[in-house]
Records
---
Amino acid sequence: MSNVRNADKNTKTVPHVVKEEIIAAGKWARLDKTTYVDPSGKTRTWETVKRTTRQSHTATDGVQILAILNRAHHKDFVVLVKQFRPPMGCYTLEFPAGLIDDNESAETTALRELKEETGYKGEVVRVSPVMCLDPGLSNCTTQFVMVNINGDDPDNLNPTQELEFIDVILLPLDGFQIRIDELLQKEDMVVDAKVYIYSVALQAFTKPSEVPAVRQ
Ligand SMILES: Nc1nc(=O)[nH]c2c1ncn2[C@H]1C[C@H](O)[C@@H](COP(=O)(O)OP(=O)(O)O)O1
């Protein structure tokens, strides 16, 4: 059951976009002036960032890969990547990820990017709906692709990545959030919000007493 509170009970207009005008365009991204009608019927504008790379067959720019490494007699590990991100000007801790290429499905992109960035061969177990990433700034979208990696598969015994500037970081699923906090204290990097929120949700599920705001 959901409980929706409407801030303006007299809303009559269905909000909608009227037009988009390009303010600046590069190879990978562009800045638009979006003209739209708000719920009160007033016409307004918004500054919107868009990727130029979205393929015509999909509503998703890229995928994020939640990959769990399973090995017999070992704990399960979450596969993360550390890389220098120019827009942030620093190293970040993220899920492996990548943009969808022409004619690729989210599943195909996820397995290709996982192999390129980490060297692991995975198997897709679930795909999320299309999700927005920063809707107050951008129309960028992603899909979460959940992947199992059989660490005992001979192909996964000595994984070799194809991208030299990416470090692969394996953190145990058990105590994932604590490990992230420890890593952030030790190393100068910024964690991606999706990774951190996932760690808090996992902690709330497995050890609710350790998460503030979760009813005991
Ligand atoms: N906004 C960008 N500016 C760039 O100068 N280059 C960019 C941008 N976004 C993507 N790219 C380039 C960098 C890579 O060579 C390719 C593919 O990136 P991909 O690995 O698919 O995605 P990320 O993991 O999100 O980098 O695109």
---
Amino acid sequence: MMNKIGEAPPAAPSAAITATALTVVRGDRTALRGLDFTVPRGRITGLLGPSGCGKTTLMRAIVGTQAKVTGTLDVLGRPAGDPALRSRIGYVTQAPSVYDDLTVRQNLDYFAAILLPGRAHHAERRAAVDRAIEDVDLTSHADALAGRLSGGQRSRVSLAVALLGTPELLVLDEPTVGLDPVLRRDLWDLFHRIAADRGTTLLVSSHVMDEAERCHRLLLLREGELLAEDTPEALRRRNDTATVEDAFLRLVDAAAARAARAQTRTATGTAAKEERR
Ligand SMILES: Nc1ncnc2c1ncn2[C@@H]1O[C@H](COP(=O)(O)OP(=O)(O)OP(=O)(O)O)[C@@H](O)[C@H]1O
């Protein structure tokens, strides 16, 4: 298996993503509050946290599709959203973006024609499409209509589209949601192969904590705040727990206790001020 932490590639010299005081407002809510973190190159970083904690918002900020972003967010050496980054990043959203009335191959041909237009690139396009179909293990379904595929197969077509341009950074929003355990394992093996063989940086979100163990590094999010940024092993060790899930729960409890203490201090301070009046 490729996804043992011990078999990880050596540490990359520079960060693929650096965020400082990153804040995002969505509607009347602050979806992300002052996040500081880095995502190392060539590694798999898991973005974990419960539903609604801000994972998609953070991914949208990184790929440059999110409004009202403040602080600094540097992606592959450029500010997030810089047009020069478009071809260097692959982004797979939660909803598979495939055409149901086209076959798997036709879907990929279509997107390959946008990435590599013109007759001159014909052979290159074909090779890229073949490789992407093989990467996601859909060779035997290449001529099936996307509309007739299972949910897991459709999301793999979306992933194949993202792999077409050989991106340096692959941002995957809950790619394993709804998949059976075997498919989930196969996809994680594929992510590890992509990171190890191509040096691609992967940022993968999940709200399933057992997937945390498959990542080289983790960003744990809760209610728009970063609870921790570390390796799964260090998180378990530091919190003296057997699993990342237990470490996460311990960190949540500690954060809640800190918030309660701060509230008590504020309430005591206000009462004292009122008394002095
Ligand atoms: N279009 C929107 N307008 C206003 N607020 C939004 C919008 N989309 C999301 N939010 C809010 O932003 C916060 C973060 O949402 P986000 O989708 O980033 O969470 P998530 O962790 O990806 O959740 P999930 O795992 O359920 O996809 C939530 O409080 C949500 O209610």
